[in-house]
UniProtKB/TrEMBL annotation:
InterPro entries found in the cross-reference section: Acyl_CoA_acyltransferase, GNAT_dom
PROSITE patterns attached to this UniProt entry: GNAT
Protein name as catalogued: N-acetyltransferase domain-containing protein
GO molecular function, one term: acyltransferase activity, transferring groups other than amino-acyl groups
Domain named N-acetyltransferase: residues: 9-171
Matching CDD domains: NAT_SF (cd04301)
Origin species: Alkalihalophilus marmarensis DSM 21297
Length: 181
């Protein structure tokens, strides 16, 4: 099998104008892989839903919404979602997805690196994520970028092969001084 040529792409902050494409891309990705939590059409987010998310993220210091764009089309995205609660304002939850046609081109890696750089620049101490145990490429990528497995949710996902799979809880902690470490 020959490797697909690398598509030139850019990583940038999401804009309201991306909302319609984001809705379509998310729907497509949910149908392309069982690595996501949803099946195609479940928990559907419309253009209006994405417009609200993008507006909120662009106006909140603890959130980041990135898109990967190639030839004017969104081909993937990543999001860091934090909050302003004092006890948890130091961390964000991270999620990422890339259209299957563009896997293996380093897009996920670039989205992750941008999110890490942003978190380091914005005094975020921890990035947390969840990944299904069968997504070996993603797990390797996360580990190469300083993430560690912090836990396991057993029998967390039921997939089309009628088997249950575990979800790994992973986190990347920035070097901090802490009286408890």
């Amino acid at each position: 099998m020959s490797k697909q040529p690398k598509t030139p792409y850019i990583i940038r902050q999401a804009a309201k104008e991306d909302a319609a494409q984001l809705s379509e891309v998310r729907l497509q990705i949910d149908g392309e892989t069982e690595f996501m939590d949803r099946e195609r059409g479940e928990a559907f987010l419309s253009k209006a839903d994405f417009e609200q998310i993008i507006e909120k993220d662009n106006n909140q210091d603890t959130n980041l919404f990135l898109v990967a764009e190639a030839e004017g089309k969104v081909i993937g995205f990543a999001r860091c979602a934090g909050n302003s609660l004092k006890r948890t304002s130091h961390k964000v939850d991270f999620g990422i997805c890339v259209l299957k046609a563009h896997w293996g081109q380093g897009i996920g890696k670039c989205l992750l690196q941008e999110a890490i750089e942003w978190s380091d620049e914005n005094n975020i101490k921890k990035i947390a994520l969840q990944v299904i145990e069968t997504n070996h490429q993603a797990i390797k990528l996360y580990k190469r970028h300083g993430f560690q497995v912090e836990g396991r949710l057993r029998f967390d996902k039921w997939l089309s092969d009628n088997n249950y799979y575990d979800t790994l809880l992973m986190g990347r902690i920035t070097k901090v001084s802490n009286n408890n470490t």
